[in-house]
Design a protein that fits this description.
The complex is a heterodimer of chains A (204) and B (320). Chain A has one domain. With 204 residues, chain A is mainly alpha-helical. A two-stranded antiparallel sheet of chain A has the order 1-2. Chain A is built from 8 helices and 2 strands; from the N terminus they run H-H-H-H-H-H-H-E-E-H. In chain A, strand 1 and strand 2 form a beta hairpin. Chain B folds into 2 domains: 103 residues, Sandwich (Immunoglobulin-like); 189 residues, no CATH class. In chain B, 54% of the residues lie in helices and 13% in strands. In chain B, strands 1-2-6-5 form a 4-stranded antiparallel β-sheet, with no helix packed on it. A 4-stranded antiparallel β-sheet of chain B has the order 4-3-7-8, with no helix packed on it. The two termini of chain B are 33 Å apart. Classes of the chains: A mainly alpha (204), B alpha+beta (320). Chains A and B meet through helix 2, helix 4 and helix 8 of A and helix 4, helix 6, helix 8 and helix 10 of B.
Chain lengths: 204, 320
Amino acid sequence: MATDKTNIQLVVNGILNENPIFRLVLSMCPAVGISTTVMNGFMLGIAVLFVQVFSSCTISLFKNKIHPRIRIPTYTLTIATWVTVIDMVLAAYLPEAYAKMGIFIKLIVAFAIITMRLEMFACKESVNASFWDGIGMGLGFMFGMMALGFVRELLGMGTLLGYDVLGFKPLLFFVLPFAGFFCVGLMMAFFNYIEVVYKRSKRA
Amino acid sequence: MNTRLKLLTCLVAAIFCLAQPFSAQSTTDGETTIAQKSFGQANEIILTFATPQAREFAENTANYRVFEEQDPDIRLEVSGIRLADDQKTVTLTFKSPLKQSLPHMVTINSASPSQAAHQTIRISKPYLGYLFSILISALLINNFVFTKYLGLCVFFGTSKRKDTAKGMGLTFTMVMVVSAIMSWFFYQYILKPYHLNFLQIVIFIGLVSLTVQAVDTVLRKVNPALFNAFGVYLVLVIANCVIIAVPLILADNEYNFLESFMLSLGAGGGFLLALYLMSSVRERMELANIPPTFKGVPIAFIVAGQFALAFLGFSGLKLF
């Protein structure tokens, strides 16, 4: 059973239609916990992209050798291996960013989005399709994290990527840790609103 | 009812007996002149002499030698000493905050040459109190859901009904305690001695999956009724990041067995508490008139944000 989507469609699907954060509502912990700046979102996005792509490819390669009854433990161990790799690489080469993200890098292993993509997609499709699906999902996650980081950094500190953009701090509230909940909630409501308006205009 | 009361009394008595050897006590070398001793602020030790002392003796830093009991060679530097007006109470201030969970030793030179050379006293916090503070900290102050932002997928997924929330919370606490204890043994006796620290993630996630599978199998055979009630939540437990975060935190902080047990219990209990609070609100919200764009998940996030704000109030809480 092969997917009939082209590679580009697979990538766009991950970013828009099945965006992990805003559409599937998965992997919310980092979205709330460390989305205070665009840079944080970007770094964690890179890590997730790496783990997603490599796990998808690995599972897709060995899909015929994995017995269906032990597939979930196999997925978990595969993800854990790749998370260990990215964990050690970041700790060695980017110790500052690594310290900021704290335990969340190690927790990629428990992100529902990765396991879900392996179960729904990679274990049925070819390596090529799995690769592009992994890229799409990883970019979708990165996009979600960066969008949240954009709003919180701009409104909370008046900066973007550390550069002063506004010159003043509109709403300090948004950089406070718990504001992650409010920010995610408000952005979801915003996207829902756009959808409602879009449907209404279509009907008219 | 009566027997239950008796049992409870026995239990309380037993806990107090257990607490005795752990609670603060002084080891006296010869005659001591210290009446009271305790930790003050984060970088303070407060001593009270039995008799009034001369200011030049009591405020001389050279007369005190302070170290942690496990490292007698490393002297902690006393930066300031203050003698209270009653001439008995001395407050030692240190340059850096003390690790107050560890017992500290203070050696004091004698005031007059006629007495024994010096005396050593031991200052420690009551151990049970320390354990209890770990539990409360994981439960309220550092609640895993509202202040550490972990386990949110399952949190939003299973907090729609009170019954579901209770079932999920209990199953979760059970699995968490078992898997944390297992990971602790693995970490202390296998990973650490053989320098396999880099395998942490793989081992811990494997252990968690194993625990879940084991609980699933055992529960199915031993108590089918309970399995019917809680079985569905077991699968969800694996996809929860709290369950893998706890072993990682245990390994980072080098907790001992009892501390690990308390932390995992607190983490599970905190999750149960968060789920129950949230489900109570969400059951009410179904009847409320919410704008259509906010219906479902978005409003749940806003409510969780308000809970997080409320839990921020616990941050100043200090026990023992």
